[in-house]
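Quick question: what would this complex look like in 3D?
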Amino acid sequence: MKLNVPLDPTRTGRDAEALDANLRRLIIGQDEAIEQIVNIYQMHRSGMSAAERPLGSFLFLGPTGSGKTRIVEATAESLLKTPRAVIKIDCAEFQHSHEIAKLIGSPPGYLGHRETHPLLCQEVLNQYHTDRVKISFVLFDEIEKASDALWNLLLGILDKATLTLGDNRRVDFSQALIFMTSNLGSSAMEAMMCPKLGFSGLAQSQNETPDARTDEKLSGKISRSGVEAARKKFTPEFMNRLDKIVTFRPLGAAELKKILDIELNFVQQRVFRASGERSFVFTTTEPARQFLLEQGTDTRYGARHLKRAIERLLVQPLSNLIATEQVRGGDWIEVSFASAEEQLSFARRGQGLHLQAMSELIDESLALPLLALANAAAAEAPRSPGVRSSRRL
Ligand SMILES: Nc1ncnc2c1ncn2[C@@H]1O[C@H](COP(=O)(O)OP(=O)(O)O)[C@@H](O)[C@H]1O
Ligand SMILES: [Mg+2]
């Protein structure tokens, strides 16, 4: 009897699914980039990556502050547990041949040969590998600024997954993901997005559901304009070696709103890390968040501008409150908007809170690690009676 069992080739394995979920939590509005990264990772996990080539090569196009660098860090964070695992090469800094030596070292006998530790050597590439994950992350930022020497080096890596160092040692890139970014063509993209951006756009997008079909059309147009700009600027030789070209979308008001929530959680994490035993929690009112968004929206700089507004309007005042001991461990601080002064205001709404009570006030993604630490501290406590707890949050 002939079998005919239908199979579903769109389902991904558990590891790829976890990566997908993590990236969707951290990266807003760039689903195509997430899909492409997850696809390449799935191929690697199944052992289906092409031999003698990097595991994947990506060209990320699109405006400043749209998440091109962040998605690479977030992938490294998800897989290797640290965003520091990304080796970043800022192409603008490697214009001259002596600067290339910083990447690959100089030939033996050359002046300064001993002192140069090439950035792209195997040890550096492999340093963040874990028992489970042996993937290296290499990011070439702003490749349109790369010199000819750097281009040749990059082409070699993309084509053969090897790089020859100054002293003739070979570096293997077959376990590396290569990311390249460029903000080429982003002004044309912004012009297309224009009616959807800006603060007037925020009010609109909150009340109206976006028309999915127009949105899809616009996406296609943005994506094509990015790829076109890249084809004009880069040689076919280069373009043909890339696995994926993804155009990042300029972030609109709805996306920035979600990114604000993510960033506020990061600020709370910083509070936990910075204040140790004096950890406190803060919450923000809706008008306070609205104010931060208003101050943080500038279409030219995407989420970068939002982050700067958060530092200036929230993190700096919080630091002052910590330094002057106006906030203490176990406090609940509420951040609201003072409309008369047009600024954020800070008030203590609770004090002497236990960790459990604190954890209920914050996002659950933060509450769980907080409680885990508290439990660990509690388990340790009985062993040192009378000694002041050295619990750190
Ligand atoms: N799509 C996004 N989702 C979540 N955060 C983002 C996004 N885009 C930017 N950010 C935030 O803004 C910061 C700057 O973005 P980045 O990725 O460095 O921009 P670029 O596209 O210029 O590389 C990031 O560190 C991140 O905090
Ligand atoms: Mg960047």
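Answer marked as accepted. The radius of gyration is 24 Å.
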